[in-house]
Specification:
With about 850 residues, the chain is of the alpha/beta class. The chain is about 25% helix and about 20% strand. It contains 22 helices and 34 strands. The strands form eight sheets. Strands 20, 21, 24, 25, 26, 28, 31, 33 and 34 form a nine-stranded mixed sheet that branches. A six-stranded mixed sheet has the order 12-17-16-15-13-14. Helix 8 runs antiparallel to helix 16.
Length: about 850
Amino acid sequence: MRREFAWGTALGACLAASAAIAAPTAADPVVHPAVWPSVAWPVAPIAADEARIATLLSHMSVEEKVGQILQPDIDSITPDEVRRYHIGSVLNGGNSGPNKDDFAPAPKWLELADQFYAASVDRSAGGHGIPILWGTDAVHGHSNIVGATLFPQNIGLGATRDPALIERIGAATAVEIRTTGQEWTFAPTITVPQDYRWGRAYEGYSSNPDLVASYAGRMIVGLQGRPDGSRILAGPHVLASTKHFIADGGTFEGHDQGDARISETELRDVHGKPYVPALEAGVGTVMTSFSSWQGQKIGGSKGLVTDVLKGRMNFGGFVVTDWNAHAQIAGCSLDNCPQAINAGVDMYMAPDSWRGLYASLLAQAKDGTVPMARLDDAVARILRVKLRLGLFEAGKPSSRALAGDWRQLGAPAHRAIAREAVAKSLVLLKNTGVLPLKPSANILVAGDGADDIARQSGGWTLSWQGTGLSNAMFPGATTLWGGIAAAVKAGGGQAELAPDGKYTRKPDAAIVVFGETPYAEFQGDIKSLQLRPELRAPLATMQRLKAAGIPVVAVMLTGRPLFVNPMLNAADGFVVAWLPGSEGAGVADRLFAASGTAAPFTGKLPADWPLTAKPGGPKLYSFGYGLTGREPRAAWKPLSEDAGVVDPGTDGVFLKAGVATPGWSLRVGDATAMTAITSVPAQALAGRIKVTAIDYGVQEGARHFSLAGGGPQAIELRSSDPIDLSRESNGDVMLLATMRLDAPQGSDLTLGVTCGAGCGGSRPLSAGMLPVGKWRVVGIPLKCFAATNGRTGGADVKRIDAPFVLRTSQTLEISLARVSLGMVADDVLACQP
């Protein structure tokens, strides 16, 4: 029976009943498990495994059981602590690595895997020596590891319409993961994005649930192998995890970690649909979302986690939370959250909060707040998955098949699959006859994204945000420019790279690469569907080249459909390349006619393309649109270049070019009187503080502050409308200040934040921390200021009204150009011990 029939006919009665389900108004929404599909879990129980689980549970101490349900980050735990606390799993976050080196070479990852494994099976201090499980975000290849193959991000794979290719990508990714000793990837993401303002939208294959569902099972089979009763690690496989259960792609206005204000019918039919093939493929783990449904955090919803996923849908693996997501559940904190396990969560992803959770969960298991039956069920599920993996008999990671076989990391066969995926993902939106290009021609390659592997790969690439990287960090990879240059050389032509479009010899045609810069999670949330103003500069290059009579092909790097009508009008051909990853040559495979024959474009839009930048506005091209390049030449009807919205504000930027951004005020003074700086030169405190304009980057692009001392003084950025920075604090986002210390500082300089009267946190800037006379981007993690960081006092990061407060009572000469949130700094100042 076809799955569509099972979904639409066999559950017909349930669907009809659910159509009448209205969104409940209670604090905890009512869930109706009976209207959800019942799935046949394909993993048959193994009697010997069940007997072993029962024996272990009967002999394990409560301390061992609590250790099994915790998952610290490798930067926040040592192998010895794994042994002492009987930890069941570790992960490496987007910015974590061996010895705190996110860019550590592959052998170091395998060495650390051995160390964690050895600690977990060490019984010298008692315990049962249960092997540890290491999870990693290998979301578009083994993307944390230098030298790995980087496949297109999921939105690009959605454009390929090729489920068999998806399975091959999963299999290749699993092999590369095995080389460095990890056993578990937090993939695939089977979200169904409905609002592309969401910063994680590119992690979803499509806005269409049927397309996502057609990929879900195939990727899981590629990663895990088929659920035939064999041990997963016996083959070239790893454990998979679907995420994020559920409706992370359906939040209000596309807010990451937001609330899905939708009916249960839409929750099931759109966002739940891909979970049916995922469970049918035997996915071993499911990760709950940060987000909410009708106001209730998913990790705290017993109705969805226990009654629907485990009950009605018969999921037999275990459920893990996202990064510290338990702290967002009502009534919970980082250190205390029995609500999650009682709702059905089996493992807490507690990267840096695990010690506090260990203490509280241990006490709660002993006093009955967490029923022992629920703890035993969680541990049993984790043990069952570890047995299914074959973890107990696999031996240390370096002794397993494929471990240390560095030929497999970035292997030519894997790169060939990635290159094929790139070529198949390209969507041709416009062609007035310029494509295909002749490789024998003189080709100019322009645009700021043409020769940048990190740019073409997007977030979750070596680092969480995919920023601060150079091409040298991607051995074996090919930029778009590199692929084009090779194609032209092979065809007897000439190619020139000039990012600004200023050529030395007039070209026969120009390729202009432009688009988004890397981001991940909430850092990528936007207010309207358009590029930031500074990313639109290549439009002028296109227009200038076109005016010179040069045919222009625009190639767009993007994680989502955006309003780009001006670029569509300016270019003769327009190709959406999405975020293609490490094999940029795949773009050239479609742009050029090799040996006189052009391979047709086959990519189709995985979501509607907007006519304006207005969310929910009219569409220019519908889901499924895509030219082949072989259509008869047709005249282009110019599009309106009205975005339909005002340019978005500067979220996360508080001071730019020395000037406070809208909504923020630059002020100087003391506790009794603060003066807003609206123009310069200016002064305050009867001349004790003077502010002047200086040049930085642009004329008068910074402000110089001269503080005479003699009492408390402050420089601050403040708003009357407090902002919530809890997501950023949890995500290790930093407060960044581009500044220059112009004279030796005093001994009492501090940088902090405030959250209303008597509320705030600060960090001392000791003499020597900041070099004198040098512009530097200084970063301090927001969590350093937070009250929840184990500090006495501290800031309530949910209501920050001043994200930058520089204080001293002594003389200070300092210049300031920019204050923002971000991930890349010249100097990162650690939290105060």
